[in-house]
Amino acid sequence: MFEKDRLDQALATLGALLEERGEQVGVLVIGGGSLLLLGIVERPTADVDVVGYVSPAGYVRAEAMPDFLAQAVREVGDALGLGLSWFNNGPAGLTDLGLPPGLPERVTVRTYGTLEVHLPAPEDLVFFKLYAAVDQGERSKHFTDLRALSPTPDQLLDAERWTRTHDPSLGFLDEPRRILGLLGVEVPDGNL
Prior knowledge:
The chain has helices spanning 4-20, 32-37, 67-80, 103-106, 122-136, 141-148, 153-166, 170-182, and strands at 25-30, 48-55, 58-61, 87-88, 108-112, 115-119. The chain is of the alpha/beta class.
């Protein structure tokens, strides 16, 4: 588990190793790691969730890691005792149907050697955390994180519309409405 200082150390070590090898990469990070790095939560996180890579065309899906990055991640994980999945692309599929509108203009960029870590703004993290809370329920860390973001009703309604585009299955459709109800926000019929 990472607390903020240990997470910064791991990313700094990874960035220094990449710089030493003449490699560079930019990543878009979501999840608990981004919340921790932005100072929104203090709870430890298990990993760094990479959803996309920075490219001249914008953010692209974080498919398999480039070999140079995968090797450096393994080495840092071994050296610091972080395990195999401390830096992973598990949520990469979220880019398939689009990131929250305007996200690239609002990111915060942290530089660690030649590693650029792009962190979504809190209003964009509302989208990702609502999606995860809908998937895992109100007893999950994602619901707690969503509350910590202190979203406005309008932000939650925008996130609810986006969430439904990422899983339009019938079983999923009522769940965002239920989760928003727990946060005191009623989803108008026009949002459907």
